[in-house]
Amino acid sequence: MNRKNKDILTIGFALFAMFFGAGNLLLPPYLGIQVGSYVWVTIFAFSLTGILLPFLGVLSVVQSGQSITDLGARVHSYLSPILGSIIVLCIGPLIAIPRTAATTYEVGILPSFPNFSPILASILFFTVAWILTIRPSKVVDIIGNILTPVLLVLLLLLIVVGVVFVQGDYGPTDLTSMEAFSLGFIEGYQTLDVMASVIFAGIIISSATDKGYTERKSKIRVVTYSGLLATFCLFIIYGGLLYLGATSGVSDLNIGRSALLIHITQSVLGDYGLLAIAISIALACLTTAIALTSAFGIFFNNLFNGKVGYKTLVTICCVISAILAVNGVDNIIQFAYPPLAFVYPVVITLVLYIVILGPKVKRREPYIGALIGSTIIGFFSLLKVLGLLSPTALSVLDYIPLFSIDLGWIVPSLIGFFIGLAVARKSESPKSSAP
Length: 435
Description:
The chain is mainly alpha-helical.
């Protein structure tokens, strides 16, 4: 294997492991028991927000420069620090990182050691994460070369056996095909991967640069191929886990996400499967915690111009995450819905418009208009999730195309983009000469 292909494998597996964490492991099976025979349309929808958009997020950054700062600069100088801080807090100590430790405890430890303290488990988890994160230059190689291949093999074993020896028929569902698509699309938000992608991109680009890919074309090529490898791995794992959920024979929607995964593992691999899933859980969660904690430290260290040290920030992140992790997976996921309902439309709009239209449209006004449109819809989506909208207000908002299925940001962002484009073209038009 030549050096370039080896680098692509290392970086690609690292990116896969960064994306694939606690929520990613628990969400697809639970989604599967809700959609029944609509499993394939749901896999497609979930893949849009959980796989394709994160890949485009990485591309949007590498096309713009080196990090989210360069991406935000395409719109406004204030966008990167504001949006970046919100994103890093969500994918960091407020939601994603605590969820990694909570999942490790509930699925990886509790079934075998029912009396094990969640507080002690959280402390041990974040002690290991802190040790492995304290040297950021080694993060990508640690994840890509050692932890990810083991994780991938274990998950593939679970999926292949589960597909060959199907546990049951598709479960019943009250959803229509469109509702299943919408559910899959929105549940993809919970992976947090679109938001994470614009942060992880900086780590991946930095790794590619350190490996000698300093020219723009070679850097984009290596990052793109690495992203495609990560995308393929994610599709196989997500699709497999969702299918296992749909054919698990479980129809009780009150079952916990962790309990469902344990049930599937025992049904497919027997009692020994618990040990395998415990190892895979630990690897998935640990690799994600390492990447997210490192991203938190690097981002705020740069934001504060080095006035707060990387090690200090990593320590603060681990302490806060350890405290919040004891709340449990389901509570953390429920807590995540409101902020994600607001932030995701903004991030998706930024990523899609920069990737698709960025090479041709250089002015800022169209992107500002698109972000204003999606931000307004994100605000109303936040109120909807919090239950603060009256039935009358909801009926009015339903006139917005796709708002009823939580995709209402699409049309307003397009309208904002074209208004901004018209403003930009008007300002560029030559002024009439004086008589």
